[in-house]
Amino acid sequence: xxxxVWFLLIGALLILMGLARSVIAGLPMTGAMVYLAFGFLxxxxxxxMLNLDIYRDAHVLxxxxxxxxxxxxxxxxxxxxxxxGSSRWRLVLRLALPAMVLTIGAMTLVGFYALxxxxxxxxxxxxxxxxxxxxxxxxxxPREAGDDEPLRFALSGEGGxxxxxxxxxxxxxLAVCNLGHPDAQSPATLAASLVWGVVxxxxxxxxxxxxxxxxxxxxxxxxxxxMGYEGFLALGxxxxxxxxxxxxxSYAFLAVFAAGVALRRKEMHETGEETPNExxxxxxxxxxxxxxxxxxxxxxxxxxSMMTFSVELEHLVELGLLLLIGSVVSSCWRDLLxxxxxxxxxxxxxxxxxxxxxxxxxxxxxxxxxxxLAGWLGIRGVGTFFYLLLALEHTDPDNIRPIAPVLLAVxxxxxxxHGISASPLLERYFRADNKAQAPREAAQQxxxx
Length: 449
Fold this sequence. Notes:
Number of helices: 19
Structural class: mainly alpha
Distance between the termini: 72 Å
Shape: globular
Radius of gyration: 22 Å
Helix content: over 70%
């Protein structure tokens, strides 16, 4: 009977979201808000159908969150279709590195001095809170591969890069928590592993992403082989890249993101400045198989097909992971209602993140509105959840008990606060941007005439 109810509820939720997606897009809300509330409802505080404990089920939950992040990171990488020398990548690096480091520093001080945590717990919590979320930030994505709007590109690239870039700081936090433990690494060993983790991940991701695109396109163009199954290719590349990165002890999240960027970079090199949608728009639906092996279209077709599959799969990942987080929150929601949670939310959303972004974007050509929006739209979600679970597996749970409810409270607050505000703010921003661009485009047309 319970199995039938499960199928009925999940089926009803999927159908509801499929029918109401366009309606939700026009409202100040997101699908993530619905999924989180539904997860809470089926959890221990509601129907009791899904009883998850963050301490007891840490390994299973971490594995699921890890798999979901892989898909999202690869999808983001595929969206970022810009030359590496573009100023847009400078925005990404500013947000993913200096802004993240400043946020970690600020939140460590808040945790240590304002919340009374130990230095290790404060650093660990700050590192888990630092990465913006790639899974929940669908509204912030470029509309298509080749969309160079600076705010979308910067926030999407940040969500892809800093989930991997935060990993070294989580390790440092764990090292501080585990001081005196016989398995603790020496400072020199830890520093070497941090450097190699980043460098090795980028090398692995770049080589595997580039090689996969080159090999499959060559087989299709020259021999009409390896046709179809782009979804298998996408999943295979994610899994293989992640596996190799783990084997060489590099940061696998960063490797998967780099693979998506590299595959798109290879496609852009072969297709040229024309976007994939522009290259394929004249191809009739029935001729897509011919486009898959056409010398001028095969690269665009392969990349777009893999990205489309990843995006669709990512929507299911978002649903599944938010149901899990909602159920976890349902099991311990009373612990979230503490003054430490409120202080962390206010400090992160209104002080640490906005100021870090503002300082980091100085000299990048971004205007005041773009800096304010980038400072506010730092969504926290699955990435924070993953690092919390990772910490539970690698240190004494007593180190985590003070910070776990606070991290979960930040996730819930972010899903609702950013979910309510993101669409209206972005709509207003893009409306103003379009009005500002109209006179410039008219002037350019007049000069051409």
